[in-house]
Specification:
About 5% of the residues lie in helices and about 25% in strands. The strands form three sheets. The chain has a seven-stranded mixed sheet, with no helix packed on it. The protein has a four-stranded antiparallel sheet with strand order 3-2-1-4, with no helix packed on it. The protein is built from one helix and 13 strands, in the order E-E-E-E-E-E-E-E-E-E-H-E-E-E. The chain starts with about 35 loop residues before the first strand and ends with a strand. The longest helix has 10 residues, at about 175-180. About 20% of the residues are buried. The chain is mainly β. InterPro entries: NA-bd_OB-fold (IPR012340), Rib_uL2_dom2 (IPR014722), Ribosomal_uL2 (IPR002171), Ribosomal_uL2_C (IPR022669), Ribosomal_uL2_CS (IPR022671), Ribosomal_uL2_dom3 (IPR014726), Ribosomal_uL2_RNA-bd_dom (IPR022666), Translation_prot_SH3-like_sf (IPR008991). Belongs to the universal ribosomal protein uL2 family.
Length: about 250
């Protein structure tokens, strides 16, 4: 009798991220009039590659807000939020006020949603073009895809900090263990072809090979759904690659 494969989680609960160590939601604060905030401190959140900036600002009373840090942010720096603000590192303004070619981060998908695009360490979103007739802006995401968003959406001027953290080699398995543990990721992951036939559909054989097509039917039982599940096509894509533009 075969065993429950790794894909079925061995009957254990799924690896959920531990929210105990989360500091606060990192979203752009709302503002109707120009506001000047002060960087109170720069924080590290467990499981997040980019540092966070704790802002302190005053409208009718004092408020605290947490946003994703950009390169060049320092403690005590003044961050200006509004429409008519200088295009300085860390300032927050609407996309319609940002010139074409500017690198921004924490770009909002829908106006006033707090920022959805360009939030990982070292990432940035480039402003490509503005359409004043439709009040929309075309931006290039870190993946290279160009996307059209509302020009009323807000963004932070600058590149997200923490971009060089992946350049340091891990060197040993112990560091990888703690890296994935902080992110609640199951590690290490054993390849199916390295297992025995009783443990995985790809296991067994005198050398490591699947031994049969890796495509699996959509209607197969859960214990067989490994590999290319309900694949429409397989193999390398051929022909010229076109740049994808999502509306």
């Amino acid at each position: 009798m075969s065993k429950v494969i790794r894909k079925n989680r061995l009957g254990r609960p799924c690896n959920k991220k531990n929210k105990m160590f989360k500091i606060a939601p990192s979203i752009i604060p709302s503002f109707d009039t120009p506001v000047t905030a002060t960087v109170k401190s720069i924080l590290h959140e467990r499981g997040r590659g980019a540092p966070l900036t704790l802002l302190n600002y005053k409208k009718d009373k004092k408020y605290d807000a947490v946003i994703v840090s950009v390169e060049g942010t320092r403690t005590g720096q003044n961050i200006e939020m509004g429409d008519n603000v200088p295009l300085s590192i860390g300032n927050i303004t609407r996309l319609k006020n940002v010139p074409e070619g500017t690198l921004v981060s924490s770009v909002e998908r829908i106006p006033n949603d707090g920022g959805k695009y360009g939030r990982s360490g070292g990432c940035f979103v480039a402003v490509v073009a503005h359409n004043k007739n439709t009040n929309q802006t075309i931006v290039r995401l870190p993946s290279g895809i160009k996307k059209t968003v509302s020009s009323e959406g807000r963004a932070v001027i600058g590149i997200v900090a923490g971009g060089g953290r992946t350049e340091k080699p891990i060197l040993k398995a112990g560091r990888a263990y703690y890296k994935y543990k902080s992110r609640s990721i199951s590690w290490p992951v054993v390849r199916g072809v390295a297992m025995n036939p009783v443990d995985h559909p790809h296991g067994g054989g005198n050398h490591q090979h699947i031994g049969h097509p890796s495509t699996v039917s959509r209607h197969a039982p859960h214990g067989q759904k490994v590999g290319l599940i309900a694949a429409r096509r397989t193999g390398l894509k051929r022909g010229s690659s076109k740049e994808l533009v999502k509306q």
